[in-house]
Amino acid sequence: MEKPNPIPEGQSDNPLLSPEELERLRAAAVSEASGPLFDLKTVEEHLLAAYDIGVVLEQDSSQKTAFLEHLNQAEHHSQSHPNLHRLILAAIATYLADGTIPDWMPLADALYKKLNEP
After folding, report:
1. Integer Rg of the chain from CA
2. Domain ranges (residues) in the chain
3. Is residue 3 pLDDT above 70, yes or no?
4. Rounded CA gap, 24 and 30, in Å?
5. From residue 75, how far is each of 40, 66, 109, 111 by CA, in Å?
6. Helix then strand then coil, % of the chain, to nearest 5
7. Residues contacting 19, CB < 8 A, separation 6+
8. What does the alpha-carbon distance between residue 66 and residue 59 come to, in Å, rounded to a whole number?
């Protein structure tokens, strides 16, 4: 089964990313699709990094690529956890669509629910 690309095609005119940044992120998403899946602690690390960057993103838009890279990595590593994976994909799509920073509570709730499963 092919991994859905969280970065929609044809959005090179997206005001949040330059065409070069978008292409680099799209290529990373495709190249990592065949890579190994990692544990939830890696998802947690990337979501925490994205959260930290998201806090300053309104004042420093130069961090948007790093923000999306961390969300993309969290998405990649969450593939074996469908609910969490779906939430991360939705967060990426919403950010790309209109620049809205994700609501972190649903992501944190889903992540810590999985981490606390026996």
Report:
1. 14
2. 61-118
3. no
4. 10
5. 11, 14, 15, 12
6. 65, 0, 35
7. 12
8. 14
Which residue, chain included where needed, has tokens 């680099």? 24
| Contact call for residues 57 and 30 (beta carbons, < 8 A) | no
Dump the DSSP string for the chain: -PPPPSS-TT-TT-TTS-HHHHHHHHHHHHHGGGSPP--HHHHHHHHHHHHHHHHHTTT-GGGHHHHHHHHHHHHHHTTTSHHHHHHHHHHHHHHHHH-PPP-HHHHHHHHHHHHT--
Is 47:107 a contact under the CB 8 Å cutoff?
yes
Give dist(CA 27, CA 34) in Å, integer.
12
**Among candidates 98, 72, 95, 100, which has minimal Cα distance to 85?**
72
Is the pLDDT assigned to residue 98 strictly greater than 60?
yes
Mean pLDDT of the 14-41 span: 59
Residue with tokens 């956890």: 81
